[in-house]
Amino acid sequence: MQPLAELKPVVDEAIAPERPIIQVSGLDHVYPSRDGPVHALSDIALTVGEGRFVVIVGPSGCGKSSLLMMLAGLRHQTAGTILCSGRPITDPDPDRVGVVFQEANLFPWLTAIDNVAFPLALRGVSRAERAARANAMLELVGLGDAGGRYPHELSGGMKQRVSIARGLVQDPPVLLMDEPFAALDEQTRMAMGEELLRIWSATRKTVVFVTHSLTEAVYLADEVLVMSARPGRIVDRMEVELPRPRTYEMMAGAVFGRLRDRIWQQIKAPAR
Amino acid sequence: MRSSLPVLLGRALLIAAFLGAWEALPRLGVADPELLPPFSTVLGTLWGLLARPALRADLAITTVQLLVAVAVALPVGTLLGLLLSENPRLGAIFDPLVFFLFSIPKSIFLPMFILTMGIGFWQKVAFGVFSTVFIVLMSATAAVRAVRPDHVFVARAFGATRAQIAWRVYLPSMLPILLEGFRLAVIFGFTAVLLAEMYASRTGMGHQIASWGENFMMDRLFAGVLLLAIVAIVLNEAIRAVEVRCSHWRS
Amino acid sequence: MSLGAMSPGAVRTLIILGVLVLWEALPRLGLVPMLFLPPLTTTLVAGFSDWRVYGAALVVTLTEVAAALVFAVGGGILIGAFVGALAGPRRILLPVFSSFYAVPIVVLYPVFTAWFGIGSESKIAFAAIYGFFPTMLATAAGIQTIDPNLVLTARSMGATPVQRLLRVILPASIPTLLAGLRLGGALVIVGVVVAEMLISAAGIGYLVTSSRTVLDSPRVFAGVLLVLVIAMGFDMAMRVVERRCAAWGGGAPAQVPRRRPIARETGQANAA
Questions:
Q1: Does the pLDDT at position B94 exceed 90?
Q2: For C38-269, CATH number?
Q3: Interface pTM, i.e. ipTM
Q4: Nearest CA in chain A to C170
Q5: CATH code for the structural domain at B37-246
Q6: Mean pLDDT (whole number) for A65-75
């Protein structure tokens, strides 16, 4: 039996639908290649509500990572608009979105804490404040005592935690995650998923999470968006009506299995 | 990797600009033609020199010294390299010493070779061997390391004999690196032989270049430099072409 | 204790001691003519008793080395970084330069003596050219090993181009720069000494050659030994610096480019 308090957010969501924080409409992306132009994304429209955990899942090469890079302002779409907090995203804006990449991409010459503080240093935040905020973030991801270590002294999972702390350190309302656990082994991956949900429930950020793992998608998400193979388009959208906190046992349940099957049907169909 | 047309064009333009500047600077009086004869003059001088039997003899001596040096260094270095990498005990003892010998500058030992061997043919060959044998040795060691144990396991699992493993796994894995060692040995051997000839010799291209320089015969000096540069580049590219052919399967 | 039971290090020490003993004994016992191999002690005595002469020569040589180093390493690193970082120049220039690398640069020295005379200028010019190409090629290769994801990550945090250069690209290239300095320095030292040996009127190389022409073997050996000590000393000092700066890199001294591993080692080691 779950304590009632932990179920409450779901109840809240059901009663009061959130304000939209990301709005994408008419998004198209075509890029030139050796074999002529490639139509990567086609007519993408999506809305992400504030505080939601949205997972985009799709086969390799469906353009889901490109879509995320565009949400981050790191790549420019051919057509269409992306609004975040009501204003268009054209360039990286760390005040509105933090990004966590597939590889942790930590700067090897900086310690864990300096890596987390790096975005603050870019904006000229004072040394004392930098240290305090970076420390708080490391505490949040459970690495409070590893701040002095260099990346090569951290395990894969720890590196990715540092990377998440870095994505959160400027307190952006939105966190974009591009297959952040894809390079980890299965056990670490499971543990990190659990850890991420804990961090998410502690911070109530809006998360857009890209993955090609069906299990990961259902386990993490409030809402799953399924993308088709190239040209990538959103072919399905489903609410995950599993209570939070999610548990390992849920994966064996009927709801979980049904949702995972539904995604699989969508993904495998166009491949035939 | 194949280069696209604009890249090749850019390269051709670069070389043309270099040669054009060489031609134009002395002609326009920007550089003293006494000190920098125009490219066309040098080319003419080179053509004249190549017709002379004496110069062809010098070129032949330099080439033979280089070839003999490499012919000695190649098997000796390869065998020693294989010995050190296949025998853990010898490797543990000698690897640091070999690496030390590999990394010290060789050319400063040239005067010692002259003290012991005079200034003849074999002194230059010996100096050439000394300058190249450690490169070959190191590349042989690297070549052995390039053989992946899992490839050997797979071959064994399919019942390959020792000879088959040597021929079908070891050789293809090692060949590209051995060839690169060979190429570097030729490059560094060429420099070594020329330096020895420039330092103290009565024959060879190095000797000619040094004496043209001392006598301010700039057109001949530049002709000699041009000739040796062409020889070096052609040798290098020829071996590299073989290397590329042998390594196309390596990622 | 038998030789087979000793540790490799002990056997190695024994071998080195054996070489030193032979160096002393062989000429003393008349097994090798003193002209070919002056005993170790005689060599050292010749060197130390003439310390004024060697000291003065050392000053000349080191001054030339310092001047050539500025051109060779400064130019090599600058142009190498430029060529390595930009795709266009890299594709056009790199193959041309690496072909040119095969040219025995030593044949240019007579040109420099004809142009600049037999004083320091010709040595500096020669050593600068001599050290330039390998340094440049190594830098170009090293710059390419910088992980582009680090730059992307910094961009996602809103780093300006200047911040990306100063805070990401520069620290990421420090191992490359140090390796370039070590390689270029070794070549410049050898270049200067070889040039002095060929034609000059001062410096250690000149001392060695003038001793050789009068068949004064101990002084030849002492001079060569001195050069060896300088070259090795420089190399060791640079390695210490590299190791210290690479503390964050897991102790790896430099990011060695994946292609042509031996070429680089050889370039740095087999100076001429």
A1: no
A2: 1.10.3720.10
A3: 0.88
A4: A109
A5: 1.10.3720.10
A6: 89
